[in-house]
Structure formats: structure tokens, C-alpha cells
Amino acid sequence: GRGRLSSIEMLPEEAQPDIVWAMEQLNAREKPANMILAEFNARLADRGIGAISKSAWGRFAVRKALIWRRDREIG
Questions:
Q1: Which has the closest alpha carbon to 22: 58, 75, 71, 72?
Q2: CA pair distance 31, 41, nearest whole angstrom
Q3: What is the pLDDT along the chain (75 residues), one digit of tens a residue?
Q4: For the chain, how many helices (H) and strands (E)?
Q5: How many CB atoms lie within 10 A of CB 37?
Q6: Cβ–Cβ contacts within 10 Å for residue 5, how many?
Q7: Cα distance between residue 63 and residue 20, in whole Å
Q8: How far apart are CA 33 and CA 39, in angstroms?
Q9: Taking the CA of residue 55 as centre, how many other CA atoms within 13 Å lie in the half-sphere pointing to its CB?
Q10: What is the pTM for the complete model shown?
Q11: CA dihedral sign of residues 61, 44, 14, 10
């Protein structure tokens, strides 16, 4: 990247369980990414945290998918 943290990486510590949940959902590839985003934002809202944009979510999802694909090829 360009050395900047994403809006997801800048979420407060209390959002960490939801970030882990979202990554697990993405990795499982059982739900569309937009459905995961909607539930992720609902979970954040329950904690009083603002929503993540579709563009930030898309960049995050693509970056994670590339990392997981590379790990599967190496492993």
C-alpha cells in the first residue's frame, strides 16, 4: 500500500472482534461481500462506531483475498 492505514485498520480496539468476524466470513466465501459488509456495519453500529464505506470495504476485501490466495499457493 501507500503506507496509510485503511479506515478498517483505524477502527477502535473494541471493533476487533467484528473485524475478525468479517475476515472469517470473507475467507469462508459463503456469503456475498456486500452482505458481510451490511452485517459488519450493523455490528459496528451496535458498538456506536460509524459505518465503513463500500469502497473501503472493497479495498479491504481484495487485499485480504490476495493475501489468502498467496498463502494457499505457498502452503
A1: 58
A2: 15
A3: 567 888 999 999 999 999 999 999 988 989 999 999 999 999 999 999 999 999 999 998 888 888 878 887 886
A4: 3, 0
A5: 23
A6: 9
A7: 15
A8: 10
A9: 0
A10: 0.84
A11: positive
Query: Would you say 10 and 4 are in contact if contact means Cβ atoms under 8 Å apart?
Result: no
Helix (H) or strand (E) holding 14: none
Reference 19, options 28, 29, 30, 9; nearest CA is: 9
Q: Which residue's entry shows cell 452482505? A: 35
Give the DSSP per-residue string, 5-57.
PPTTTTS-GGGHHHHHHHHHHHHHT-S-HHHHHHHHHHHHHHTT-PPPPHHHH
Q: Provide the residue count of the chain.
A: 75
